[in-house]
Fold this sequence. Notes:
Layout: E1 5-10, H1 14-24, E2 42-44, E3 50-55, H2 57-65, E4 71-75, H3 76-82, E5 87-92, E6 98-105, H4 106-109, E7 119-124, H5 127-135, E8 140-145, E9 161-166, H6 170-174, E10 177-186, E11 188-193, H7 194-199, H8 201-221
Parallel strand pairs: 1-3, 1-4, 7-8, 7-9
Antiparallel strand pairs: 2-3, 4-11, 5-11, 6-9, 6-10
Helix pairs in contact: 1-8
Bound molecules: adenosine-5'-triphosphate (ATP) and 1-O-pyrophosphono-5-O-phosphono-alpha-D-ribofuranose.
Pfam families: HisG
EC number: 2.4.2.17
Family: Belongs to the ATP phosphoribosyltransferase family. Short subfamily.
Amino acid sequence: xxxxxxxxxxxxxxxxxxxxxxxxxxxxxxxxxxxxxxxxxxxxxxxxxxxxxxxxxxxxxxxxxxxxxxxxxxxxxxxxxxxxxxxxxxxxxxxxxxxxxxxxxxxxxxxxxxxxxxxxxxxxxxxxxxxxxxxxxxxxxxxxxxxxxxxxxxxxxxxxxxxxxxxxxxxxxxxxxxxxxxxxxxxxxxxxxxxxxxxxxxxxxxxxxxxxxxxxxxxxxx
Length: 222
Ligand SMILES: Nc1ncnc2c1ncn2[C@@H]1O[C@H](COP(=O)(O)OP(=O)(O)OP(=O)(O)O)[C@@H](O)[C@H]1O
Ligand SMILES: O=P(O)(O)OC[C@H]1O[C@H](OP(=O)(O)OP(=O)(O)O)[C@H](O)[C@@H]1O
């Protein structure tokens, strides 16, 4: 353990969108960060007191919630699923835009009304969000947890419905599925550990402000 400030970044698709903001906030990782062959997970930066770690997007929230990292970037899909009270999300970064939706086979959607369901079986990477969403309207959602390729579940008889992220809709279309309901709009957020915000307020608010300025500059240039 040391007193370095640790920033957790997701290694998946939003990293490409996040890095221009990280750099505009004044943080430049060591050269190895951009080496596709590197096995390193933790990287130094141009700031001797700041390191970057690169983890799966769901794990960004967990590292920051437990205080192993102090700041991070994660989609609100991930934040909703964990609902960690230790996390504070002060800034919408305006990247990673998509939506979390319910989908089912096109043929089924023709004569189906989700508002009439009383019980439903759903394949998803988001069982908590899904259960909460349906419970609010008195529907019992039985969730089968998958970590990807949810779109295969209906055609193979695992579950007729899925809850997954949708952006262009081309993944649903390619798998014969139709979006029937939107649960939430999704963008990526800057997240911070609440305890770190209390114990290192100057440093933490300084970086939140730097990310806010980076977002404003990016939006102004767009
Ligand atoms: N199609 C999409 N369009 C825009 N943003 C997306 C899309 N899919 C996912 N995202 C956003 O990017 C985040 C990471 O998604 P990604 O697909 O890279 O994760 P993953 O493949 O599930 O990653 P992992 O390998 O970490 O499990 C999501 O939590 C969401 O906020
Ligand atoms: O509406 P679209 O533009 O087709 O995007 C939706 C797809 O994007 C995400 O998957 P991703 O490509 O990240 O792959 P994954 O299955 O590894 O999560 C999501 O899980 C959908 O499958």
